[in-house]
Batch of 4 targets.
Target 1
Amino acid sequence: MLYDMPTRRPKDRPKHLPLKVKYDNSTDWDIAYVDRSICPFLILMPLYDLPDLLTGEVTTENRSAATRRLWIRGGGFWKDRDAHLQWLCEALRARQVMPTGTISTESFCLTIAKIAHSFAVAELGWGSFTPFVCDMIMKRDVDNRAEFIGGGEGSHEPSTGLHELGFVDCSDPSLIAVKVHLFGVLGTPTYYVVVGQKTLPSAEV
C-alpha cells in the first residue's frame, strides 16, 4: 500500500490501519483505526543467515521461516515524522501513539521464492535448470527454508530503484542463485535464493 503496488485483490486492501494510542485517562494501549493515507506503520522483514547451498554449511538451529531477528522501520511519506505523530495525537486526543506492524515469515519466504524462480525462468528459459523451490512454493512448505533461502544481514544504503533482481555467483558453478531486493529505496535487506541447478546439455548420440 505504501507504493500503491498492483494486486489481484484490491478490495482486500484495508482502508484503515491499526494504530496504538494511549489516552490521558488510561495507562493501557488502545487501538484506533486510522485512514491508511495518514496512518504511520512499521515495515518488518525477517533476517536470516545466507542459504546453506551458498555457504556450504548446514544450519542446525532453525531451518524454517521462523526467526527472532527482524528488520524494522517506520513507514510513511512525511518529512517530519515526529510532527506527524504529534498531529495524530492532537487529532485523536491521545497523549501518545505508536505505529504497529505484522509479518507472516512463511508467506514472505514463499513470495521471495516465487519472485526468484520466476526471474530465473524469464532470464534463462524454462527447462534450462532443475528447479529447487517449486515444491516449496506449491506445497507451501518452508520447513527447509535454510537450504535455499536466506540473507537479510541488516540495513543497506537506499538504492535508486524500487526493486532489484539479479544473479549472484555461487562457489558451485552448477547452481543458480538470485538476489531479491524489495523496496530498496528504503534501505531494506537483500535476500538470496538458490533456485536450481543448471541442466547439462544432452550428449549427442
Target 2
Amino acid sequence: MLRRTGLVWLAVAALTSVSIQTARSQDAKPAPPTVPAPVEFDVLEGVWVRPDGGYTIAIRSVAADGQLEAMYFNPSPLPFEKAQAVKSGTTIRANFELRAGGYAGSTYELTYDPATDRLSGVYYQAVAKQHFDVYFTRQPVPIR
C-alpha cells in the first residue's frame, strides 16, 4: 500500500508540474509586433544599375530635404533636371526627371525596397509616350 501511495503522489506531482508550466506559458505575454527600422535617405547613395540595359543612376549624396545629387548614364552621362527623394512612413521614393539627350520630360518614379536593396518602379519615356516597369540593383562601387 505504501508503494502504491508513493506512486500516486509521484503521478500527482508530475501532473501538477505540467499544469503549472502550462499556466505559466498561457500567462506569458505575446511578443510585441516588430516595427520596421526607419529607413534614412542616405540608403539611396551609391551606384544603381538597371539590369535590362545597363542604364545607371549614380547618387552621390542626399540632402536632409531629400534633394539628390545624382547623374544618369546611358552610357554617356546626362544630368537630371530634377532628382528628389521623399519619405512616407518607412517608405522612400525617389523621382528623377531628364531633359537632355533625347529624353526631354522622361522620368523615373522609384521606391526603395530594403528587403531586396533595390529601387523599383516606373520609367516614363516621354518621347515615345511609354511606361515601363523597371528596377535598379545596387552596385558595390564607391562613388566618393
Target 3
Amino acid sequence: MRALLAVTAAAALAACTPQGQSAETTQAGMEAEAAAARTAIEAINAEWVAHFDAGHIDSLGKYYTENAVSMPPAKPAVIGRAAIVADMKSEPPPPGMTQKLVLNVANVVASGPIALERGTYIYSLTPTAGGVGIAINGKYLTHWHQVDGQWLIAEQIWNDDAPMTPPPAEPKRKT
C-alpha cells in the first residue's frame, strides 16, 4: 500500500513539474515561495497585532481585501472590509482591561498570489489596576491574497480551544 501511495505521489508531483525541471527543483521552489510568503505574513501579523492591542481598530482595515470575509466564533460571517472593522469595534475590551493578542504561525503554504496560514493564538485581558486576568487559547486559519504586491487577508476564521459550556440544568419540578 505504501509503495502505491509513493508511486501516486511521485506521479502527481511529476504532472505538476514544469517541463525540464526535476521534482526536487519544483519542491524546492514551492518551499522557497512558502518561506517568502511566511516572512511577509509574519511581518504583517506583527503590525496587525500592534494595532489591535493598542485599540487602533480603524487601522486594521488596510490589511483586508475589499470583499474579505471574517468568520468569528458564535456569530454569522462578516463580509467586506468596512463591516469587519465595524464588527471588531463593536466588541472593545471591557472597561479597565488591557487586551493582548499573541499569534503563533504554525504553517504557511503559498502558490503564486494565494497563501494559507494556520496557527494558534492566545488572547488575554488584564485588569489595568492589577489583579487576575483571563487568557483564551485558540486556533485560526487565514486565507491571503497578494494584491498589487501586498498580502491582504481574504478570509479568516478562528475559535477557542475551550469546550462549549453546557446548558443550565432544568429546574427540578415538584411532584
Target 4
Amino acid sequence: MPVLERDPWRFQYFEGVTCPDDVNIPTDDPDCWNLFPQQNWIYDRLRIAESQGVPCGPHGVKPEKFPVFSKPVINLKGMGIGSRLIACEAEWENAYQPGHMWMQYFTGEHVSTDCVVERGQIKWLRHATGETGTHGTFRFWTIHAATMPDLQDFLERWTAKHLSDYCGMVNFETIGGRIIEAHLRFADQWCDLYGRGWVEALVRFYSSGHWQFDDHARVDGFSIPLFARHSHVPPHPSPETQRLIRTLPDVKSLQITYYDDKAGDDHPMPPGGFRLAVINCISLEAGLAARRTLAGYFPGVELMLLE
C-alpha cells in the first residue's frame, strides 16, 4: 500500500494502487516529522505565527492585548489538546502551562486546505469547511469545488517564501485567512472526494516530483460523521449493512471509525461525542439520508446530530 495509513477504515482508499517500494506517503504527523527533517519546523506553531507577523509568544511572556488563544507549541498527537481562549489578564495569571504558547485570537471562517506543493509552488488545492456541532464535534464538512482566491493567494505567497525546497502535500488550517497550524500531509478522511484518479496522481507525484491530474470535473463533496454519546462501544454493523450503505445514491464511501474490541477510553475522540462512522458523498441530502439509514443499524445506542 503506497500510503502510510494507521487507520484501517481508510485502507479502502489506497489498497490496490501500484507504488514503487521506495516511495512513502505519510498521513500521520509523527511519520511526517521523521520523513521530512528539513521541513518539520512547520509543526512549531510559534514559528508559524511569527512567519506571518502575528503577535505571539511562549507562556511566561505576557501578551500586550487580550483575548489571545493558547495552545501547545508542538503536539503531534491530539493536536488541539490543552488549547483554550484566554479572555483577559485575570485569566492569564492562572493559565500558565509549560510548553504552551499564545497568539492573536482570530475570528472568521475556519478552512482546511490540502495543497500539492512542488518546490514551493502550489500546483493543486482543495478547501474544506466544517459545520460545527458541540464540544469538538462536527455536523459535516464541505469539500468545496470552488476556489477561495484571497486565501489561495496568501497561501501561495507564504509557501513560495517558506517551503521553496519542499515537494509533497501540505495541509493548512486557517482562520480568517491566516494560518493557525500546518501539516506535511493531506486530510485522509475525504481524499476519495477529490476525484477519480487522485490517489494515483498522488503516487506519481511522490515518485517523480511532478504533479499531473485532470481536475476539470470537480464537484462539491460532503463528509458526514455519525456520533453517539460516550458510553459503551457497540459492535460494528455487519459487512452486508456496510455494503448496503456504500451502494446508496451519491455515496462514495463509508468509514466505521472505531475498534469494537477496544474500550471507549482507548479511542481519541472529541469530548462532545464518540464517532461511529463517516459517510463521504457528493450530495448533502443523500448523505444525510444514508446516515439516517446507518443509524438504524446501531440499536440501543444513543445517537447524536442526526439532522
